[in-house]
Amino acid sequence: MYLLFLGKLIVLNVLRDWRKNLIACMAILIGTISLVLFGGYVAQMYEGLRLGSIYSQLGHYQVHAAVVGEEAYTKSLIAKEQAVLVADKLAALDEVKLVSHRVEAQGLISFGDKSVGILAYGVDADADAQISEAVSIVEGSGLFSHKPAGALVGRELLAELGAKVGDILTFLTTTDGGAINAVDMEVTGVMDTGAKELNKRFIKMNLSLMQEVQYSDAVTNLVVLLDESKLTDESDRLIRAVIANNGAGLSIKSWSEMSDQYHQIVAMFNNIFSFVTALVIIIIFAAIFNTMTMGVMERVSELSTIRALGSSRTEVLLMVLIEGLIVGVFAVLVGISSGALLAQVINYANIAMPTPPGSTFAYPLRILLDLQVLMVPALLTLVATLVGGFFPAWRAGRLPINEAMQR
């Protein structure tokens, strides 16, 4: 019965000081919405960077020859027999969608009187189309196995050469034995990787043509693409176990291990998000602290009377603290709901963002809502509410009864 009375008293006190509580509630509400939207934007950006890295060139994993010492400065190839064996073992895993053979080489591309140093990939045409979903074909067509002499050329590189779709380019590189060899290829398509610098120095050709110019059927790496809907906590261990058991002299790296740019961007935005979060939490703390301090000072006689009727200091402290917590919980629930609703409106509005520096792709503003994006602002806001309300509540419990009742 006493607890019921105390609960009723707490609710009535919250409703009685509704103007002050509304001010605190608005500060918490705006802060929570801001954290949800900014956190969702950052989470979506991370996810976009991850998928962009995987579905542009890297795949989920790549298998390379493990070379050390002086051998690391020479071209290291995986023999055809070993590449086929490892690819078959990997493809047998339920998580693996496909395994593509690839040869990476540097060389010169020539057209007319112009020659440019480039990076060239020899790829399985059909498999690479799935691995490179983030690479767009802006003119012409993609690679096809029935057109072995075809090539995809970066947009800026083709413009620098002064060539166009259908022209014949000459690719000059070194063979597996160190000799120099050249091959002609037809420009079947123009690609945009999303990065201007890469577009200036990048081509793709069929794997058979690359192996022909190098006089070798070996490959430099295997690219592994996974079915993300089938990934489990054990997937990474199973994939690495295949290489450990069947890939003597081979090493495997995940997209995360190969993408330094991703981790640099994540570190930068984590610092920005932490700074913004700290500012919002300080504002919420100040709003709760100010509101509850004013409330306690205005209710000195009332709180002292409650003490005089037999309530302990702890009960008064908890009563005042719960009042602030009720305001905080209400504001957080409304803030989370409003933030989620605003996120859906923003996603539906399809707002275009400016093209990032060094990139060729513009992208729409998206807010990713997941459990972490919603729960982190809620927990931080509630902690700020509790901390901001503790000192005024503690002060209320420490008021001397005889002196306080005379105010």
From TrEMBL:
InterPro entries: ABC3_permease_C (IPR003838), Lipoprotein-release_system (IPR051447). It holds the Pfam family FtsX. Belongs to the ABC-4 integral membrane protein family. LolC/E subfamily. This is FtsX-like permease family protein. It is a multi-pass membrane protein. It is found in: Cell membrane. The chain crosses the membrane at residues 21-43, 272-296, 316-347, 367-391. Keywords: Cell membrane, Membrane, Transmembrane, Transmembrane helix. It comes from Rheinheimera maricola.
